[in-house]
């Protein structure tokens, strides 16, 4: 039986990070339906969870591998941007007394600078552009 399933799945996309994320969201939506909710809210949650379940199985069994890979790549890029933003905010709070953060006017990358009052020149580590920084 195991070999038949493996042979049937041959050439299909299978699971990836986006599918696992969608499965977690599906489980959360299904779990919230266990609580007493208004009828309209329960119906909306049921429709969303059923749609998500169909979409999960569609992605798992799809044979259009380049399209599913592109979807997963864009999901991973979005997840990375969110994670970097959260880490930047955490670090800004953590080092608020000893460092300041300034954005490079050329490429937009956030640069961590020591909190030393006065006018300074700073070079961006990414693009190499030099710009003036005023720290109070």
Description:
The chain has 136 residues and is of the alpha+beta class. The protein folds into two domains: 2-94, no CATH class; 97-136, no CATH class. The protein is built from four helices and four strands. The protein has helices at 2-9, 17-32, 39-61, 65-94, and strands at 99-103, 110-114, 118-123, 130-135. The strands form two sheets. A two-stranded antiparallel ribbon has the order 1-2. Helix 2 (17-32) packs antiparallel against helix 3. The chain is elongated and about 70 Å long. The termini are far apart. The mean pLDDT is 92.
Oligomer: single chain
How many structural domains are formed by the residues? Answer: 2
Q: How many E strands?
A: 4
Spans of 5+ residues with little confidence (pLDDT < 50)?
Answer: none
Provide mean pLDDT, rounded: 92
What coarse outline follows from CA principal-axis ratios?
elongated
Helical fraction equals 55-70%
> Structural class, from secondary structure content?
alpha+beta
Strand percentage lies at 15-25%
Terminal-residue CA separation: 71 Å
Main β-sheet description = 2 strands, antiparallel
Listing every helix as H and every strand as E from the N terminus to the C terminus, the arrangement reads: HHHHEEEE
For the largest sheet, list the strands in their spatial order: 1-2
Rg value: 24 Å
- Give the count of helical stretches: 4
């Amino acid at each position: 039986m195991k070999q038949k399933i493996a042979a049937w799945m041959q050439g299909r996309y299978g699971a990836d990070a986006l599918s696992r994320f969608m499965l977690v969201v599906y489980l959360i939506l299904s779990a919230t339906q266990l609580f007493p909710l208004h009828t309209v809210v329960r119906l909306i949650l049921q429709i969303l969870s059923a749609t998500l379940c169909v979409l999960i199985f569609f992605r798992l069994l799809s044979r259009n591998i380049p399209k599913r890979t592109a979807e997963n790549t864009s999901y991973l890029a979005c997840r990375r941007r969110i994670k970097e933003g959260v880490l930047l905010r955490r670090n800004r709070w953590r080092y608020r007394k000893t460092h300041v953060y300034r954005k490079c006017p050329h490429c937009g990358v956030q640069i961590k600078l020591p909190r030393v009052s006065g006018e300074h020149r700073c070079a961006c580590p990414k693009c190499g552009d030099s710009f003036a920084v005023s720290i109070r």
